[in-house]
Each structure stands twice: as structure tokens, then as C-alpha cells.
Amino acid sequence: MSRRIIAFFLALIMWYAPALGEEATDAAMTITIAGEYADSLASDYSDSLRTYLEERFNIEFHPLQIDTIDASYFYRLRAAANEFPDVMLYDAQWDFLYFVQSNALRPLPDILSAYPNLRQYITYPYAHNLQYNGLIWGLPRSLYAQEMRMPGYCVLIRREWLERTGMKEPENVEDWYELLSAIHTLDDSVIPLTSQSPWAMFNFTYFYAPFSNTWIWEPSMNSYVPGFYTQSYCERISALRGLWDAGLLDPDFMDVHCGRPTGVDRFLLGQAACIVYPTSIHAIMAELLHRWSQIYPNEPIEDQVTAVFLPCDAEGQYSESHDVNMSAIYFSANVSDEKLDRILSLLDYLCSPEGLMLRRWGMEGIDYTLVDGEPVSLLEDGMTLYDKYPSYSLLRVLPNLDEAAIRSDVSLPPFAAMLSEKCDQWEELCMRQQRHWTSMKANMILTSSGIYFNPNLTEISFRMLTAPEGVEKCFESVKEEFVEQGIDQLIHKVMVNLK
Amino acid sequence: MKSKMFRHTVTHRQFIHMVLAITATLIAVILLTCLLYTTVILRRNQNDVEGVLTKYRDSLTSQIEEYVQLVQTAAYDASVREYLQTEDAYARHLAGQGVSTLFSNLKMVKNGIEEFFLFKPDDAEVTHVSLGAQQPALMERLRQCKNPEIIGVYPYSSLYGRRGESNFVTIVGCPVYSLTIEEQQTNVIGAVAVAISSQAIERNLHEFYQREGIRYSLIDQNQTVILGDKLEASQKDLAAVAELGRLERDNLVTSVLMTSIPAMDAVLIVQTDKMVLLKDLFVITLLVLCLVMGILIAMLCMAGRISREITMPLASLTDAVKQMDTDPTHIRHVPEEGNADFRMLSASLNRMLLTETRLTNELLEANRNLYESELTQKHLELQFLRSQINPHFLYNTLETIRSIAVVRKVPEVALAAKNLAKLLRYSIKGREIMPLSSELEIIHCYLYIQELRFGSRIRTEFAVDDDVLDLQIPRMCLQPLVENAVVHGLESSVEQGVLSVTCQRDIRSLWITVRDTGVGICPEELEHLNSLLANPFEKKPGQQTSIGMLNVARRLQLSLGNDFTMEVSSKLNHGTMVTLRMPLEKLEQTGGNADVQGATG
Known about the structure:
The complex is a heterodimer. Chain A is α+β, with helices and mostly antiparallel strands. Chain A has helices spanning 2-25, 48-57, 68-80, 96-101, 116-119, 159-165, 173-186, 198-202, 208-211, 231-245, 263-268, 281-295, 301-304, 337-351, 353-361, 385-388, 392-395, 403-407, 414-430, 457-466, 471-485, 487-498, and strands at residues 29-35, 59-65, 87-91, 131-132, 135-136, 139-140, 153-158, 191-195, 214-218, 223-226, 272-278, 305-308, 327-331, 368-371, 374-377, 437-438. Chain A contains 22 helices and 16 strands. In chain A, helix 20 runs antiparallel to helix 21. Chain A is globular, with a radius of gyration of 25 Å. Chain B has a five-stranded antiparallel beta sheet, sandwiched between helices. The relative contact order of chain B is 0.06.
């Protein structure tokens, strides 16, 4: 009898032994992820979507919220301390080369042949700007077709102001001046125009090109020069200055993350009539529509707000865009091969057909079901995945390589669908624009003064916008500062490299 | 002594009563134990809750104090003042960057900060979407506060919060004073506020939500649930809490403890669901009760079975024995019931009683037979005495005849007289048990006398085994048979007859046959004769005939009991055969009952 009991316990131990071993060796891998929307992965939220992915890949997200305005400062501190987060979602156009050369980043193992779903998006020239010394140092998050001129911003107007002013949708700067002035005249407590972010405001006067890394051929210098070094840059700030001086712009649009209400707050609360806002469907849904439904649950935004183009210039030209991929995913040099594989597997899954369904429709059987092979949403009316899953704000765009597919999604909310349709029209208009040479690394070439040429264009632009001496004089001062910082050497080195 | 034994006898009813009493006692003990445990658990829980509450209140106060210090630090930072006071847009932007960095750094100092807010005196009543529609009240409180303090609890919608689900934040605010020389230091130029996430506060309550059966709710004075479950309290209770600091409400099902949390101007309600808290205890108690009931049922079943199979049969047996003891005429039988052992015992007792009855009857019958036998013997002795002439006269006469015959040379007469005297003497004198050889010798004497009468008409044949000659048999049990064969069988026959006597033995018996080839016996008479011989002492009609054989049978029965057989077989005109079987065991031991006097009629 006692032998049988001992045999039973031995069998029990042997039965559980493999499970115990697995548990000991297969613990969830912690992945620190930093960037915008990272907080949406916080475990404080009860989020079955995050839990699903964590369990599927046996990982555990540790979010590190990094607001864009602090990003450079934060990441440089981390780089100096060799404590980069495992994954960074960062618009590192000013810091990319610095991080690479300071050995803070780790390159991808190869051309991602082991991750075919991800690999299909990482093709030249999209990955070109993320290459250095023959290695790929990051994964682009937003890709635009080479010939595509996608407008990055639009202006949202509360319809009541169009009705109260009796004006049509404005087209050029003059039209906008009239509209915003009329609004200001009707109610001077209302801010005529605000913006979602500081740099969004500067894009209002088709400032997209100089703000980015565009290099423009300057005949007078017989050379390519940075866009912000051209007279065109000054003219565009001057155009905005007219609105500023007339008190038509939000005086606090530059004040972010200092406890003050944002432009979005003002627009949503009706304290601002218009707002310059990104055309990103994700931003629209994650922020604007989400917030709107919180404040006005019974008022569809499409009934209250309309989207119009940014103003065109005197020749009828609209703003232009370029094949840039500012936003990218970077990996810390401290990430092990195993962890990198786990992260790339997650990204590969999110780029797979199944992952695309997850990112567009949520979890099958819970958020949608397939009827005749077509997904049908199971969400309540008015509810979106952004409302349901906090983590969706990030996971939806963790790889954001299929923007075109998202835009054509038939299940978009009416307002997002309307904006998407408008974007198609704008793209047609933008096709006529001249396209300039763009390089992330051009601005990062080390000058002879021993520093990376890294101007804070947002601040410089605001300085010009508010300068008591006027835009022209301020621009001259700025150019002198550029020269002092070694912009001539930068231009020379870039030209040498180009040749 | 007898009454004492009866007093300790437990009847089946008493046994069941005893089982019920034990079970009831057990149940009572279990319920009492459960009640005691309930009291202890509830008291300990109450103590624990109060301890946790005190800890929570202290911890929260300390935590809030840290947030207050953070807000104070922010409010007195130069960048904040500069931002609020500078009118130049670009300079304000630069100051704003400093404020942004300050807030960012302060967020890293302490967890749980959702957001910093910087208000200006001329701000609209509603400015921040995340703070919802209750900002006017918040702004009013901010305007009133003179020092860093808790402003209150307000709804807060995070960018990632679910729609329709309100979170709450605790707002700690501090006015920002102008410190410039031109302005009075009491001039308030703005306010800094920090929103503390409910999760940061709720972490202190983990000891509550880890406890089963405990629900908690942190509510403000408007009964808005800040944290936890939706638990309501009356305004009267809230007023009492505000006055006393704490309040207890207790009923059968729940226990409610309300504590004021001054740090948040809120009330924490902790409700203990006693049923949930005691669920395990109740389950255990229920299981034990079920177990006891199971044992009770098992004991009752066992008691019933014991009662049915042991106690009740024992009582019936006792009653039957008592009745048999007090009334001899009562039927000698006990009921056969109960378990196998009892049935076997009762059956054995019944068999004993049956045997006793049979033996008693047999004893009575034997006494009756003995009595009749004695009567018969007396009668025979009387007859014998009557017929007895002076045997000495006969002996002397026969001796005289023999002497005369010898003198006158008539040897046949002499020998006949001699044999007759011998026969006469053997039949009158001597022991009742004689060797078979003596019996055979007497037969020879008798047959010599008969040869003188019948001459060659009778031929005799003897077949006697040597090992039977010494066997002791009742006296005069063969001669009457030989005499019957001669007188009733051969004498009537005109032809020569044969008389044969055989004596043999087997392992257990002595077999003696007396056979003649005479006239035989008719079947009816033979049947009657055999029936008489089967019960020799039974009086039957026609008993006057065959008296000799009947006497032999009676002698044998008196001597050997019923262990002998005597059968007569006959065929008319062909002869008759008498067969005697006597058990060797009795012959070798005693030769039969030596006290029985011969009944040789």
C-alpha cells in the first residue's frame, strides 16, 4: 500500500516537473517602451487588448511617457547615462546621428528577412534615412509614397462661425484673414485660430517644407541650402505675422506642457473658432474624436466642425510634403538579441494580415465578427476602439506603415472619413508642387565648430513671429547666428558629399 | 442481584434515545463553536479594519503632505512667476519652457501625478477638457485658498480613459504670489494645482481590496464616489462622521465603518459583508453538521438494526424464557428472529427444547412400559408360582426314573429323564444371562427328548460359528423358538422335517436363525405376528397366540432395549424362519439387562 502511495506522489511530481521548469525559464520579458502615447500601455488601465498581446508574446510592457517637447532633452540624458529605454518611438531627425555615433542605439540584425510582414515595408528609399555605415538603425513608422504629396495639416472650423460670419470656406491667406478677422470682430473673447501644436501653427502658411529637412537649390549661392536658410522661409513667417499682429492667432499656442490649456482644449471648449490640426486619421481619432465624445456625447462632431485646406499661396499653390520618415522606432544598444527578436516578432505580427485586422477591428469575436468573410463591428454605437482600449492609442500606430489602407477603411467614423476624402483631394492639388531634396542626416553633419548643426526651428520661427523689430530684421539676425554656428561649413560639407 | 442486572439492560428505545441525545449534543457543540468563531472573526476583522484605516489615514495624510510640498515648490518657482507676469510673448514662451521642464521634473519626483495645472486670474471658468465641467467650483476654491491645501476631489478624464467612465483626481493647489518689488507680496498672480491620480491613492487601500468580503468607498461631501464601490451614507451619518471623526453601523448582515479623511475632505466607508467573511466558516460548519447528520443517520440505522436484530430478539427470547420458566405448560418454543447468530442460538435452543420434550416423553413412556412390565412380571411370577410344584419332588422323581431305567437297562428312558431334568433345572435356576453355548446345550436336551417322540421324522442341523459360543445372551431366548418350530411347524407335517439353527456374527451384530420346513404360517397371521413382535409390550387383539415368541421378544427388549430385531418369515406349507439380530456391543458389555427376570412362560 505504501509503495503505491509513494509511486503516486512520484508520478505527481514528474507530471508537474516540466511545467515548473517552463514557468521558471519562460517568464514574461519586460520591454520598456518610450514615446508619445506610451502611457496608454500602463497597467493601471484594465485593458484586454494589451493583455492579449502581452500574453501572446510573453512580454510585459513598461511604458515611459515622453512628451514630444521634452523628447530630445530626455533621450540625450538617457543616452549619456547609457539607460536608453528598450524601444523608443521618436522623431529623431535632429538626434539620429548623435545617438548612432554615441553608441546609444543598436542596429537591426540584417534586412529583417526573418520578419517578412515587417520586411515588406522596409524598402529603399524609405529606410534610406535610417541607414548609416551600411546598417539599418531604426524602423520607420510612417511611410509616404515617394511621389505622394500628403498634406500634414488641415484647419478645423466650428461651423457656427462660418454661419455667423456668413463666409465661405477660405482658400488663400487673404480669405483666412477676412474670416478670422470677422470672427474676432463678432466676439473678441474667442480665439480665431489656434493649433494642435506649435509647429502645426507654423504649417498654416505652407511652412511644411522649411520646417522639415528640405534642402532647396538656391541659384544665388549656386548651392543647395537648408529650407530655413532661404528667403522663402522668412516670407512665410511674415505671412503668419500679419495674423499674429492682428490678434487672430492664439497667443499661447507655444505654451505646451506648462499646465496651460492646449489649443485642442480651447477649440473643444468653444474658446477657439479654428484649429490647425494634423490630417493623421490616428491623431484625429485618438485625440480629437475621443475628447469630443467625452464632452459632447450626443453631438456628432461632423455636425459642428468642418475641415478645410490650408491656405494656398498667391499662385494657388498648396503646401507640399516630402518622403520623410521622421517618426521611427529605435532600439537601445542594451537590448539583447532575444529581446530584439521578441520585439520584432511583435511588430511583424502587427504588420501581418492578422495583425492588421487587430489594429483595424480589434479582437475577433469580441470587437468584430466575420460575416461572409467581411468584418462586422460588434462595438456599441458611437464606441470606438480608442474609447474601449487605452492601449489602442499606441498599438494602432506602433507600426504605422499602412496609412493609405487606414484612410480607405470603410468603417471610419463619419468625420474621419470626411477628412480622409478631403486629403485625397488635397493630394491631387499638392501633386503640382515642386519637390525638394530631403535628408535627415544633412542637418546633423558635424561642423568645424565641433557641434551638430541643430537649430530649434520652432523657437526660431516664434522668435521671428513675435520680434518687435519685425520678421525681416529678425531673420537677418537669425541668419547671422546660423553663420556663427557654422552653417556655411555645413552647406559646404553637404555639397561635397553630394558631389 | 437480578434486579440490578435488569437495571443495566439497555432497550432499543433507550439506545435510540441515547444516539439522539449524543447527536443533539454534538450539533449544539458545533453550533456553539461556530458562534464563537464568528464572534472572534468579526472582532478580529473589525480590529484589522480599524488598524488599516488608521494606517491608511496616516499614510494618506503623509502622502498628501508630500504633494502639497511639491505644489508649493512649483508655486514659488521663478519660472512660474515669470511666465504669469511676463507680457512679452517670446519671453513668456521661454519662461513657459522653464515651467514645462519644472513640471516634468516634479512629475518624476513622485508618482501618481496626472497633470499640473497653471491658472491665471483672468482664465475662463472652464479651461481644461480633462477637468470637465466642474472647474468653476475648482477655480472658486483656488481663488479662496491662501496657502497650499487640498482643493477637493474632481472628475478627471484621461486621454486614454474610457468613455463614460469617470476617474477622479485629488486636486492640491497653491496660489502664486507676486514677489516683485513693485507689487505687494500678497498679490495673487495665479495658481498652481496638481491632479493626483486615484490609483495613487487607491494603492494605499490595497489591504482592503485584497480582503474578501470587504467593500470600500471614498466619497466626498456630495456623496460622489471617488474611489471604490458605490456605497451610500445618509447625510445624518456624514454629519456625525464630520463631528466625531468615525461612525459604526452594525447589523446582522453587514458592518459599516465610516471614517473621516480630512486630508481629502472625504469620508471613507468600509463595509464588511459578514456573510462573505464568514462564508468559509459557514461552509465548514455546514459540512461538519452534514457529517454529524450523516453519522446520526448511520447510528440510527445501526441502532435500528441492532434493535431489530439483537435487542428485540433478546427481549423476545427473555420473555419466552421467562414464560417457560414461570409456566411449565407454556409452549416450549422461542421465536427465531434477529441476526444470524441469534437465529442460530434460538434454533439451537428450540432443538434443545424439542430434544428435552422428546426425552421427557420417552422417559414417561419408558416409565409406563416399566410399570406395565413390572405388572406383567408380577403376573407371570404369580402364574409361575401357581404352576410351580415342588421342583425337588420333580428332580427326585426324574432321578428315580433314570435310576430305574439304568437298572432295568432302558438307557433311552434314563437319558430322556436326565435331559428333561437338565432342561427343567436350566429353565428354573441360573443367571438371566447365559453363554450361547449353554443355550445351545439346552436346545440339544430338548431335541433329544423330541427325537424320542418323533424318531426320524425330524432331522436337526446346527451351523454355529465358534466365535459366537461365548457371547452372553438372555437366558431361554432360543429354546421357545425351537419348541415353536417343533410343535407348530414340524409336528403337524406328515413328512420328514428339518430343523436348522444357525448362529453367526458380523462386525456389529449376532445373527441367529431358527428355521423349520413345517407347515408355515398364513400371510395374515404372519403379518399380525410380526406387528406383535415389533412392539411386544403393546396390547393387541389376538395376543393369546404365539405367546412364546412374544415372551422372547419382551425379554430381549427388556434386556437390550430397542436395539434388537426379531422377524418371522414364512411361506405356507414350506416352512418358517425366525431371525434374531442382537447388537454385539450390548452383548459384549452386559449381555443385556441382567436384572430382567426371564419370562419363559
